[in-house]
Structures are given as C-alpha cells and as structure tokens.
Amino acid sequence: MIVAMLGPFLSVLDATVVNVSLSSLATELHSSLSVIQWVASGYLLSLALMLPLSGWLVDRVGARKLYICFFSAFTIASALCGLAWSANSLIGFRVLQGIAGGLLAPMAQMMLARAAGPRHMVKVMGYAAVPVILGPLLGPVLAGAILQHSSWRWLFYVNVPVGCVGRCSVDFVLTQRRNGGHRPET
Fold first, then answer.
1. What DSSP string runs through 155-173?
2. How far is CA 127 from CA 15, 107, 144, in A?
3. Does residue 183 have a pLDDT over 50?
4. Which residue, 113, 93, 106, is CA-closest to 38?
5. What are the angstrom distances between the C-alpha of 11 and each of 17, 59, 101?
6. Which of 10, 64, 141, 143 could form an SS bridge with 17, CB 3.0 to 4.6 Å?
7. 45-98: per-residue pLDDT in tens?
C-alpha cells in the first residue's frame, strides 16, 4: 500500500509546492506573474483532464502497466521541469507532469481496491486518502525550505530520486504480487 500510494502523494505534493514559488519563478524566468501562474494552472488542468480517461485506459492497457508507465513519465517530467530554460518551457513540462500525475491516483486506488477485495475495501480506501491530506500540508512547507536553501529547480529535482526509488519499488512489489509472492525466474 505504501509503495502504491507514493505516486499519488508526489502528484498531490507537486500540485501545491509550486504555489509558494510563483513570484520567485517569475523573477528567475523573467516573466510576468500572469504568465507564470500557468505553471500551476497548466499542471492542475492537465491533471484534471486525465481523470476521466483512467477507466478507459485501464480497460485497454491494464492498471499495472499504466501505473508503472505514468510513474516513470512523472519522474522524467519532473526532471524536465527542473531543466526548464524559460517560462514557456516550464509551463509545457508542467503540463506533461500533470498528464502523468493525473493517472497516478486513480491507478493506485484501482490496484489497492482489487488487492483488498470487498471485505477490506473501506479500510484500504481510508488509508488511500492519506496522500490527498498530507500533500497539501507538506507542499508549501517543503517549497519554503527548498527556496530558502536552494534554487527553484530543486522543487522539481527532489522528485527524481524519490521517483526512481518509488518506480523500482512499484515494479518489484507489483511483480511479486503478479507472481504470487515468488521471485520471477531469470
């Protein structure tokens, strides 16, 4: 459960971490505040637009494959956000990050619901709400600490090592589950 909820946690965290830094981003990227606000808005809009597609995509591709693919895409998009050279490039990369992040929460909840079964569904879904609660609380605090001690780019780079470890953990756990808890033969 912890491994599956890491993706939604990062997605929700990134929805709030940028809000604290908008004025800094505008200054650093030589942009107006009205343009730089699209860094947050583009992310949230693309995130929301992906939610209705989740069921359709799961039927065609499968929750496990989608989760692993979009977890990887979210991590790569985070690195691209940190490498952004202008306000427009950052906005574009944030839209990509939002597309990937928009599918992490529904995929994780779907996988947890299937694994829990009807008997444990309420308990598991209660735990699944934790990232939605913690992300908005921790996002501004983390952003403030990063901006005080480092560059705005670290708002996004911080996702890369966490995303890599999480992606490997997700692959390991989901492969174990698919193989009945046994290691795949090499």
1. HHHTHHHHHHHHHHHHHHH
2. 20, 15, 27
3. no
4. 93
5. 10, 23, 5
6. 143
7. 999 999 888 888 888 888 788 888 898 999 999 999 999 999 999 999 999 999
Cα distances from 84 to residues 56, 88, 172, in angstroms, run: 32, 8, 31
Residue type, 182: H
> Which of 153, 134, 111 is closest to 24 using CA atoms?
153
pLDDT in tens, 134-177: 888 888 999 999 999 999 999 999 999 988 888 888 777 766 65
Q: Are 98 and 74 in contact (CB under 8 A)?
A: no
What are the tokens at 82?
Answer: 């940190």
Q: How many Å apart are CA 136 and CA 146, to the nearest integer?
A: 16
